[in-house]
Description:
By secondary structure, this protein is of the alpha+beta class. It is built from three helices and five strands; from the N terminus they run H-E-H-H-E-E-E-E. It is rod-shaped and about 90 Å long.
Amino acid sequence: MKLKTAWLAGLMVIFSASYAGTSLATEYIHRDLMANTLSSPGCAVEAEAIANASKPYNLNKYSKKFCQSQGYGWHVEAIKDNGKSVCQACTGTNSGKKQCHLEDVIVTCKRIKPGSVGMLPGKS
Length: 124
């Protein structure tokens, strides 16, 4: 008898949630950003400077900063475009060497839509 009551209660919970119009999936707000990375700290030969500027570590680090600059709760969803490398010549004793950075990096950021995860009772 207890098993039948528990089974019936479980079915009622499942069907009441599906007919109440509540969404069980989390909704997100998306935003595309375009930004530039900072130049590498040292001067190097152009090929090496471009390789340092376009390392996956640097790209991930800066894309995370781009999204976090939007405010609390923003995270990286995808890096759409790695951008293009731009180099500047170094002066002084490092003549002939360059510092490079990436321009026009496009990143898709996301955050949870307010009210979509049950923070406001009775609303979906």
